[in-house]
Specification:
Blueprint (H helix, E strand, L loop, with lengths): L5 H21 L6 H5 L2 H19 L5 E7 L20 E5 L5 H7 L4 E3 L19 E5 L3 E5 L4 E5 L5 E5 L18 E8 L5 E5 L5 H8 L17 E6 L5 E6 L26 E7 L14 H15 L8 E6 L6 H13 L20 E6 L8 H35 L1
Parallel strand pairs: 1-3, 2-4, 9-11, 9-12, 12-13, 13-14
Antiparallel strand pairs: 1-8, 2-7, 5-6, 5-8, 10-11
The chain binds guanosine-5'-triphosphate and magnesium ion.
Length: about 425
């Protein structure tokens, strides 16, 4: 059974805290002022119902799992005849595209993986047989860490294998014919999605609408914030059969780094994407009637700041900006204003709260006005996504060749 370690308790507390924050924030989205005046128990009941519905849905996605792994014990030696016990089996993690962490948890509720013990040495078989290895299929994109945060390794390609618990050696002359136990420890399987493009934006910006337009994915779309509550992958297909994957993530909000909303928890999933696609509503965004209105420029800067506060390296990833909802009235004027502000962002930083001014402003390779409803700008966006990825791939190849040349030159000297 999973023991309640202090890190687990902290994790649970922060989850509950986050959920309560969400509930408090959500109260602002009750449809009418009358609804807000209903008795508290009415509100609490609807929240309980909403939380159960969320749990049912959210429960399907897991991106962290803690498991126990133990190598098999070695077999006993046979002192009288100098027989050697068999080696205990090892525990291996094997990357498999078809598995999810949720499926592992459902299939092995006790989350214990123990390899077979080695056979004892006997008169019939002086050299005991080795124990069978235990192979645990895990999804691609897994980082394996111990409870103390030490990294065991990563599994990113199908079929890749990682040894996580070695079996004990069998009893032999050196060990006085006593076998040794296998390694045993708890490990974390930390999943970070592997996608070419990660969508980053405030809630309601139209990220899921955009993904639906450019791929066959069918994420939920609705006119209220936090519709997307778990990452969703879509594949964009090009006429030359090249495919790129795009990850739709839950919306970020201002203050996400201090645990507001739920988007921050999912930012780890853009760590491995090759490119970021910022999506902003050209008319700006307001989270709730009591929250400040943010223009498109402010949302871009606030998103940059949230990324910077999560991990500075994210701000240096290749990025594109899709300015969505260009079909709305005044969109053209708002876009012109945004373009002007993005030309000289430092002149407009005073519009932001002091602690939210980004130190590194994200440099967009392209800024593309789009409408996920009318389809405006979609072709250009799809082309730009491809162009950036191709350029990055070329750069990688060039760097590889340069490194090879350097190594060759060093060898010649
Ligand atoms: N007029 C207009 N509305 C749009 C456009 N794109 C999205 N919407 C609407 O905006 C609302 C939010 O769209 P979503 O795609 O759910 O937004 P999201 O960014 O995924 O939101 P979260 O999942 O909450 O983070 C929906 O009502 C969409 O119909 C657009 O280009 N034009
Ligand atoms: Mg969404």
């Amino acid at each position: 059974m999973l023991r309640p370690s202090s890190s687990n308790v902290l994790l649970l507390a922060s989850e509950v805290g986050g959920a309560i924050c969400d509930v408090i924030t959500l109260r602002h989205f009750l449809p009418s002022p009358e609804a807000q005046e209903r008795p508290l128990w009415c509100f609490v009941l609807s929240m309980v119902w909403a939380t159960r519905a969320l749990l049912r849905k959210y429960g399907r996605f897991m991106d962290d799992l803690r498991i126990y792994v133990k190598g098999g014990t070695g077999g006993m030696g046979y002192p009288r005849l100098g027989g050697e016990g068999g080696k205990g089996g090892d525990v291996w993690l094997v990357a498999n595209e078809k598995i999810t962490l949720k499926r592992i948890k459902d299939r092995y509720p006790n989350k214990r993986f123990i390899a077979e013990a080695g056979a004892n040495s006997s008169i019939a078989a002086l050299k005991g047989a080795s124990g069978k290895d235990s192979e645990v299929n895990v999804p691609l994109g897994i980082s394996v860490t111990t409870d103390d945060g030490n990294i065991f390794g990563e599994l990113n390609k199908p079929g890749e294998r990682l040894l996580v618990a070695r079996g004990g050696i069998g009893g032999c002359l050196v060990t006085n014919f006593f076998p040794s136990k296998g390694q045993a420890h708890m490990i974390h399987l930390d999943l970070k999605l592997i996608a070419d493009v990660g969508l980053v934006g405030f809630p309601n910006a139209g990220k899921s609408s955009l993904l639906t337009k450019i791929s066959h994915a069918t994420p939920e779309i609705a006119a209220y914030p936090f519709t997307t509550i778990k990452p969703e992958l879509g594949t964009v297909k090009y006429p030359d059969h090249k495919q790129i994957t795009v990850a739709d993530l839950p919306g970020l909000i201002e203050g996400a780094h201090v645990n507001k909303g739920r988007g921050h928890k999912f930012l780890k999933h853009v760590e491995r994407t090759k490119q970021l696609l910022f999506v902003v509503d050209v008319s700006g965004f307001r989270l709730s009637p009591s929250a400040p209105f943010r223009t498109a420029f402010e949302t871009v800067m606030l998103l940059s700041k949230e990324l910077e506060l999560y991990k500075e390296e994210l701000c240096t990833k290749p990025a594109l900006l899709a300015v969505n909802k260009m079909d709305l009235p005044n969109a053209k004027e708002n876009l012109d204003e945004l373009m002007e502000q993005l030309q000289k962002p430092e002149d407009y930083m005073h519009l932001l709260p002091v602690n939210m001014i980004p130190e590194l402003t994200v440099k967009f390779r392209d800024i593309i006005p789009i409408s996920a409803i009318s389809g405006e700008g979609m072709e250009e966006l799809i082309e730009c996504l491809r162009k950036v990825l191709d350029e990055e791939a070329e750069k990688k190849i060039e760097n590889y060749h340069r490194e090879q040349l350097q190594t060759l030159r060093q060898l010649e000297m």
